[in-house]
Specification:
The chain is extended. Helix content is 0%, strand content 47%. The chain folds into two domains: 84 residues, SH3 type barrels, CATH 2.30.30.30; 35 residues, no CATH class. The chain is an all-beta fold.
C-alpha cells in the first residue's frame, strides 16, 4: 500500500510573481515573459504571453450591463515550474537559497538573532 502525502503539505516554488523567466521545454520553448501568478499547490506558473489557449465562453445575460457577450477569448494557461528558468540580466540561472543571520526587534524593544532565507543566483552568487 503506497503512502500519500498530506493534502496540506506546502510545496516550495523558487519562482516568484514578477520574475522574468525563459521557457526551456514545450511548445513555447525559448519564449521569455514575466510571471503573472504562481500556483504553488500545483507547482505551476502563469507567464505573460506564453502557453496561450483559446477559451470559448457563453453569452451570460445576468447582471444587466455587466453580462458577458460570449465568444472566443485568448488567455495564458499555467505551465509547470520545471519548464521555466529564471532570467538574470541577459543570461539564465538556477535559483539557490542562502540563510543570513539577522537581528529582529520585539514589540517591547528587545532584540534577538534569527535567520532569513535569501534567494541567490547559482551562476553569480548574488542576491536576486
Amino acid at each position: 500500500m503506497a503512502h500519500r502525502k498530506a493534502a496540506s503539505a506546502k510545496k516550495s516554488v523558487s519562482i516568484k510573481k514578477g520574475d522574468t523567466v525563459k521557457v526551456i521545454a514545450g511548445r513555447d520553448k525559448g519564449a521569455e515573459g514575466k510571471v503573472i501568478s504562481v500556483l504553488r499547490e500545483e507547482q505551476r506558473v502563469i507567464v505573460e504571453g506564453v502557453n496561450r489557449v483559446k477559451k470559448h465562453t457563453k453569452v451570460v445575460n445576468q447582471g444587466g450591463r455587466a453580462g458577458n457577450t460570449g465568444g472566443i477569448i485568448t488567455a495564458e494557461a499555467p505551465i509547470h515550474v520545471s519548464n521555466v528558468i529564471l532570467v538574470e540580466g541577459d543570461a539564465v540561472t538556477r535559483v539557490g537559497f542562502r540563510r543570513d543571520e539577522v537581528t529582529k526587534r520585539r514589540p517591547d524593544g528587545s532584540t534577538y538573532a534569527a535567520e532569513r532565507s535569501v534567494r541567490i543566483s547559482r551562476k553569480t552568487g548574488k542576491d536576486i
